[in-house]
Specification:
By secondary structure, the protein is α/β, with parallel strands linked by helices. The protein has 2 domains: 122 residues, abc type-2 transporter like fold (3-Layer(aba) Sandwich), CATH 3.40.1710.10; 198 residues, no CATH class. 63% of the residues lie in helices and 9% in strands. The protein is built from 15 helices and 5 strands. Strands 2-1-3-4-5 form a 5-stranded mixed beta sheet. β4, α6 and β5 form a beta-alpha-beta unit. 40% of the residues are buried.
Length: 379
Amino acid sequence: MANIQYAGLRFWSILKKEFIMIIRDIRTYIFLIIIPFSEVVLFGYIINTDAKHLPTVIISNDQSPFTNSIINGFQNTGYFNIKKITRNNVDSEQLLKSHQYQFVISIPHQFTRDLLRSNQPHILVEGDATDPIAVGNAFHAAESLPNYALTRESQGVLDYLAVNNTSFSVDTHAVFNPGVVAQFHTLPGLIMSILTVSLVMLTAISITSEFEQGTMEVLLITPVKPLDIIIGKMIPNVILGYILLSLTLLVSHYLFNVPFRGSILMYYIAALFFIISSLSVGISASSVSKSQFQAANTANTYTLPAILFSGFLFPYHGMPVWAQWLGSLLPTTHFFQLTTNIMIKNAAWTEVWHDLWPIIIFMIVVNIFSYKYYRNTLD
């Protein structure tokens, strides 16, 4: 009986000690419980492979009740969100490069005349197919539009328009990715994801490892400033980041035949700001953490949402508006779009600047945060 009581006392002592440890390090357990729960709730809302309400511009060179019904038909499919209707002959590729629109719908001159004469006019629907998932269902919906778009108008003397539902046809064109190759989307996304996870984690454990290995005391007594240490930690990792970027580009091009149509020099210059941003997030995570384990958890709290909100795994325009707004604050979203624009669309500086400046702003803000908390740690 005494042995049983003694064993129970030992068990209770260990249990009490563990609860005390949890209370003392409550921040770590918040990351382990609350953060994953919050991520499940958030991602449950944004995960959507059937993207709808995609931004669309219509170039209409014909104005009539028939074209108005067809435009309403596109809107009513749920896949096309008509943002703009214009009569100007705008270059559709330039519109799609801007990333403001996912589709361009062109209604030709004298469409109504050809429709009434049973000449079966054609409407062209062009979609940015760098994300095949986003355009696939929308193309199918557009191709079925002639079956019902003119039902109300096909009455009386115009009932011949409803014969065999062939009064007009819709042609679809996958721009930038005619073969609808999945790798044109996944490889730029993997480049962004690999850089994000590797670089953030690389520096996330840098400061805490100094404490755990006892080398921080050496840094404290040396005549160096916090900025010197941050820059000194970053430069070697920037080089590693470029090596990692180059390897992933070589694999994507030579192993998976993903083209690189833009300027490699322009891309490397733009990538510098993203690499520094990712490294700065890691340094910030390690500055506010007490152990490598806690720093790694803090880094994961950033990397997982950053990748999921970027539009890589799920169509960006298919996410709720609030999720798109959150994604627009993260450099991963813009670097993914920038990579796709340069690699696949051969974009110029003017066409990627709208994705580059948010990365620069993010980089500046996070570096200021890193410097402030690193200085407090040294103090």
